[in-house]
Amino acid sequence: MMDTSKSDKSVRTLLLPALLAAALLCYFTLAPDAFTPDAIVHYQARPDFHLAPHPPLERDKFAIVEPDGEEAVTVVAIHGLGDAPEDLPFVDGLADVFPFVRWVSPQAPSRNITVRGSRTFPAWFDISTFQDLDFHEDVASLVSSAQQIHDIIREERERMVKAGKLPRIVVAGFSQGAVMSLLVALTASPPVEAAILLSAYLPKLAQVESLASPVQRKTPIFWGHGAEDPFLTARKALEGVRALRTPPISMTDVTFKTYKGLEHYWDRHELEDVADWLEERLGWAKKSARMARRRSVDLNTGEGRRYGFSLTGK
Fold this sequence. Notes:
Largest sheet: 7 strands, mixed
Number of strands: 9
Strand content: 5-15%
Number of helices: 8
Shape: globular
């Protein structure tokens, strides 16, 4: 007579691995991105944003505007996708208003940009699609670019200390530069004095719970955004602002303003709000109430208009 208990046990022993394999197959079939780098970033230890960059940014490509008189603050101004350091509104629109500021604008490395048909542009990180900015987030380039910018901040701090000055640093940027300014503000050690963001979004990488320390969460942030921005939409921006203000990030001083009729660029009203905010939050004394132009640059043009970006990337 056959021992059915042993037979049942053998069947169970054979079935369990098969069922487990089938379950795993179904999981990876239905959720193919579950263990991609984009997903893993939420569970791994925070990247080291302060490692020496490889390679460092080329200093001879920086645009620098020295202060008109005694220097009190350095602003690291970061350009957007496809732009150049001299295209920034901070250098052209705000330098005359705050003559005591040294403006340091680095040049991004050239890289292939998926949303632009994989053509090469100066950029801090790749973007796959404007419809879903989180899709295949370029974590490696976000981290390496943050390391490059932190390296500039370290140099500026050391230079100011050697000159017997208090090292006061502000980060500011437009579009991709605003994204990098936000990421740097969340990871700067010691913290920067403030961050100015024009047309930004909050990358998934910045939403890792361990990213910002209690000290960095007190950094004042000004976030201005065009209400009609077709690339980095105002809705996406508002999602980022809400995430900044609530746990686990819990930033305590975030000013968010949208500008009716403004697309993916800046205008004079936005820059005037930036100047007023700097005066109110940081006590910067404005030389004049009027926004002066240092060069023949149209402040109503910007990254989106200049390069004719389209949502399809064509």
